[in-house]
Write a structure and sequence with these properties.
The chain is of the alpha/beta class. Helix 1 packs across helix 2, helix 2 runs antiparallel to helix 4 and helix 6 packs parallel to helix 7. Helices cover about 40% and strands about 20% of the residues. The chain has two domains: about 60 residues, Helicase, Ruva Protein, domain 3, CATH 1.10.8; about 200 residues, 3-Layer(aba) Sandwich (Rossmann fold), CATH 3.40.50. The chain contains twelve helices and nine strands. Strand 1 and strand 2 form a beta hairpin. Bound molecules: S-adenosylmethionine. The site of S-adenosylmethionine has 22 residues, from helix 7 and strand 4. S-adenosylmethionine binds next to helix 7 and strand 4.
Length: about 290
Amino acid sequence: MEDVTQARVDTTLRAAIARFHQAGIDSPTLTARLLLAAALHKPREWLTAHNDYLLSSEQSDAFEQLVTRALAHEPLAYLLGRREFYGLEFTIDPRVLIPRPETELLVEQALEWLRQPSPEQAAHTVDAIDVGTGSGAIAIAIAHHAPTAHLIATDLSAAALAVARLNAIRHRVDARIAFVQTDLLDNVPYRARVITANLPYVSSEEIEALPPEIQAHEPRMALDGGCDGLTLVRRLLGQLAAHLLPGGAAFLEIGASQGPAALRAATAILPAAHIALDQDLAGLDRVLSVVMPE
Ligand SMILES: C[S@@+](CC[C@H](N)C(=O)[O-])C[C@H]1O[C@@H](n2cnc3c(N)ncnc32)[C@H](O)[C@@H]1O
């Protein structure tokens, strides 16, 4: 006899969609379908063809747990445990910031720079250093698309580096990336052709105004850029001369309103460098680029 407590796929989805609507969750239908597919370990398309499938009690419990977390505004990437970045899928959890599409610009710029011919590499040099690597998204995307490049990736957070190492293994670039737990570039006795950094750049004041998905769930250490958001960017600018090879470039992500202040800081700290602001696809200032003299 059929267990009357078992729920069908379609009724389960309808109930979750209604709860998400009521709670003001973004894209309630898509969210419900992605979460149910995850709870059932099936592709999302499977649900459409199996509307009348009866969930086991374990499957219903697993789905209910995900729904409860979504209702508490936990980001979808944490619920699903993954996010795509630069065409690669990364394992993501609350130990790391969720990689954002605008950060793909840093990867493009670094790869373009690495495509230029380079002199024979001396001792204590690497192709690229990624500072504040988080999930490893930038470093791993660079290593994947520059298959002979050797990189260093740093982060202050040991927890974030554990996730980054997993992602490097997943994408088979772990042999070419050294992960280092340190403050920015402290105690990294290497120079690089390229340095990338998407450091925390939200000002302490702006953090309070962030949506709950970000403010309550993403690591504070990945967001807080101090008083005006540029505290870490300024400190890193002060370390670039000692860590870039002559003619090397740094690409630092900044907030859309920080262009003029970032430009002033870079010009004051590195007067001999060529400094520019680059815009993202939305036309907003997004990257501070610094090229050292030859
Ligand atoms: C905005 S997140 C970016 C993560 C990743 N690079 C990305 O683009 O998705 C900033 C990262 O910088 C790290 N971080 C914060 N302060 C740091 C410091 N002083 N030195 C090194 N890393 C730091 C955080 O732990 C976090 O992983």
